[in-house]
Amino acid sequence: MRSRVARLVISCAGLLVLGAAPAAAQNAQPKWEIEVHAGGLVTNNPTDGTTALPPAGAAFTTAGGRPSRRVSSWYLGDGAALLNDVLTAFPSGPSARITPLNAVIQGPLATRENGMAFGIRVGRAINSRLAADATVDFSPARLTMTEDAERGIEATRGTFESAFRGLLATAPISGLTVTSVSALAKDSGGQLFTTGTLNLALRTTGSVIPYVTGGAGLVSTLGDKPEATLEGTYRFQLVGFYPMNEGDRVTVRVSLPDNVFVGVVGGGARYLASPRWGIRVDGRVYLGSNKIETLVDASPTVSTGSPVSPLPLSSASTPAVQFSNSPPGTGQQSNLTGEAITAFRTYRGSGLRSQFTLTAGLFWRF
Fold first, then answer.
1. pLDDT tens, 114-133?
2. Domain spanning 29-365: CATH 2.40.160.20
3. Average pLDDT over all residues of the chain
């Protein structure tokens, strides 16, 4: 009898334990969450910053006794200023002036477009109000050369030709050829946002849970940066005999760090369709330094021809320009013998740059 009672007590206890386990499992709240989402990106493109132009080249006196300066390029800065000053002394001067690249290079060469954004988020509840998450988002919105920059580059390209044709129109030369061409790489790849945040729930009960969020991370720029190259040449024979051939190559390009540290602030709401899944709407602002820059490279070339001209071709203006095919270090030299320019920063952005994402996603809890 006692053994039967003992077996009955043990059986009841086992049933209680088995019944309690599912109940405990049902009451336990999931701690982890994984989400996929998509939406849009809006970017501001500040223009504040500091500007500079390459310094003027070394001064020299032409064969005609006139003051002049060595230049690294006719397309911009002091080279364009010298060319235009000389042209004012010519009958065709007012209509033949070159349009300098200065306005293009003393500002941001490109802006970030608005576009789509999508990604994945993994989170973990810390307590009933606080949760931490890690998010990786990709946006294909491209960094694109501005329309003002494209128009300015085209204006400079075209007026290079008219300026040199006007300058040399009355010179004792033959076989004049002037060319000016441009090549543009107008846009680059998108961005990757890698961030970590803490989310503070504004309520702990109900099916709709609003929250605020804050954190930090990195925004990575993908792909090559926009750039433009201008290449101008002029060729002729002085008095029909001495060959002159000079080239002017300039590249202007966008510079950005591969990764920029950003702060993240925002908020949203989670709708719990069940204990295991739900929908989230989330808005975030990414704040980081405006580190976009415009850089300039210039490579002047003067060919040494044969036969070498005993006298250069120089203008009778003040200031003057001069063309020569003498080897470097011998005789009179051309203006286009200034130092090559490498990565000269003509614009550096300042202040804050902000980007905003608004996404909707589906999450699962486990």
1. 999 999 999 999 999 999 99
2. yes
3. 91
Query: pTM value?
Result: 0.88
Pairwise CA distance, residues 356 & 285, whole Å:
4
Using one digit for the tens of pLDDT, what is the confidence trace for 301-359? 999 878 999 999 999 999 999 999 999 888 899 999 999 999 999 999 999 999 999 99
Q: Is the peptide bond before 319 cis (omega within 30 degrees of 0)?
A: yes
Q: Which residue has the tokens 């704040």?
A: 287
Domain residue extents for the chain: 29-365
Report the alpha-carbon distance of residue 344 to residue 107 in Å, rounded: 13
